[in-house]
Amino acid sequence: MFLYYKKSRESFITKFYFKFVLFYTIFSASAGVLIPYRSPMIYIIGGGFVLYLLHATLTYYSEVKFVKGIYWLYLYFFILVFFSSDFKYSLVNFANALLPALILPLSFTQIINKDRVFKLLEMSIYFLLIYLANLIVANIFDLGGQKYSADLFDTGNLFTAALNGIAYILVLYPLIIANCKKKYRIFLIILGIIVFILIVVQLKRVTILAVFIGYIFWGIAFGYRIKAIGYLFVVIIALAISYPLYGNLLNKQIEKRENRLDVVENYESEARYQEFFIVLDERTNPNDLQSSFFGKEMFNSRGNYGEGSYGQRQLHNDFSLILHGSGFAGFIWYYIYQVFLIFILFKVKKRAPKFIINSQFGRMLTTIYIAFIFMSLIINLSGGMDAVIFNCIKYMFLGGILGYFYHSAIEFQSIRENHK
After folding, report:
1. Dihedrals φ, ψ of 230, to 5°?
2. Where are the alpha helices (DSSP H) in 155-304?
């Protein structure tokens, strides 16, 4: 609809792949509203998503090539779950973390050409529309939900996971605008402005910073050399002109955040800062080398760090969560793999034809890929390793970009051999 791409016959796995994030977002928004929390239906539907990805993984395992390392990392996490004092709680959180991890290699096998990249971009647009629809429904029916302060607007169940997902999609926008149908361009720009304003008025600082980091990479890579970057000036002007529409809401939010800063937020910010050093101190204890290397209570941090002084508060940033649950072995492995993903990109690109790598489209994909990895390190500060939605968006595009370059190389090689 929004982008040009050729439709082709697809297997069930492929069809569901492009709708996975959309279905899961609707499922998340419906939990506790249309589907009671902790009801059998919640576990059945959630289990269905897991089974789909496991089935897809087994189907395409032999085609994954460069990204199989993520399987071994999460197998290690899975083994550690069995040593948790609350196995069920750890298992559920592990399953949530596993879904995006499995999306990465699956995306590598599914995004085989430019048309499928466009289809993935279109999925991201529909995600924004679903998020807006959720806000409208949540406020009409007063569904409440998480937010930093009361009396602004209801968010329903889509808060941090959705906002961080929006951050990734906003960084996709230069690619979306550069390739969308002209008749939808103004609509998509307005849509982007609206969702960015929603991020700003909710004062989700890490999310705003992540978007900023993403556009730094756009500026470094392209400067003013593509029209889509020029649209940023249009966005900035539009934000300034439309300020009267959201300025009052933003000022109220800032005032409420200031009023509670010395109470809840000050405690939370201090706790988030301190928690990593508390966990680090525990993991460097020479009297507990087993926990130092392998951690303890994987995905079950509540009451299990800081000698229980933080009560049932769980760890809130991923650096702490991974170090606590998997020790230095898992912590080093996890972040080395994030860096390794950059090396995989350049390894795959070496095989791809130069006219694809050096094209504007190819360079834009490379920029997005690197930006996403650095954005994720920022987002790790606020936690969410077990948040399905935004991690799926991240890994869909990382795996998809690798897949696009890899399959372009295969197609080009096949054409050359046929012409010999």
Report:
1. -60, -30
2. 160-179, 182-201, 205-222, 227-241, 243-260, 266-283, 289-294
Report the b/e string of 24-39 with b at 16+ CB within 10 A: bbbbbbbbbbeeeeee
Burial of 186 (0-12, 13-18, 19+ CB in 10 A): exposed
What's the half-sphere exposure (Cβ side, CA atoms, 13 Å) at 419?
Answer: 6
What is the per-residue pLDDT for 270? Answer: 54
Q: Which residues of the chain have pLDDT under 70?
A: 143-153, 224-236, 238-240, 243, 245-247, 249-273, 419-420
Cα–Cα distance measured from residue 364 to residue 51, given in angstroms and rounded to the nearest whole number = 34
Return the amino acid letter for 323. Answer: L
Burial of residue 147, with CB atoms counted within 10 A of its CB: 0-12 exposed, 13-18 middle, 19 or more buried: middle
Amino acid 409 reads A
Concatenating the DSSP letter of every residue in 136-178 gives: HHHHHTT--B--SSSSS---BT-SHHHHHHHHHHHHHHHHHHH
Which amino acid, residue 164? N
pTM of the full predicted structure? 0.91
First to last CA, the chain: 39
CA distance 92 to 160: 19
> Residue 201 has what pLDDT?
83
Rounded (5°) CA angle 359-375-370: 25
Cβ–Cβ under 8 Å, residues 203 and 209: no
Given the structure tokens 């048309």, which residue do they identify? 115
Output the pLDDT for position 93.
94
CA dihedral 241, 244, 249, 253 (to 10 degrees): 70
* CA angle, residues 124, 128, 132, in degrees to nearest 5: 165
State residue 231's pLDDT score.
Answer: 58
Query: What gap in Å lies between CA 195 and CA 86, rounded to an integer?
Result: 38
Integer Cα distance of 364 and 354 in angstroms:
14
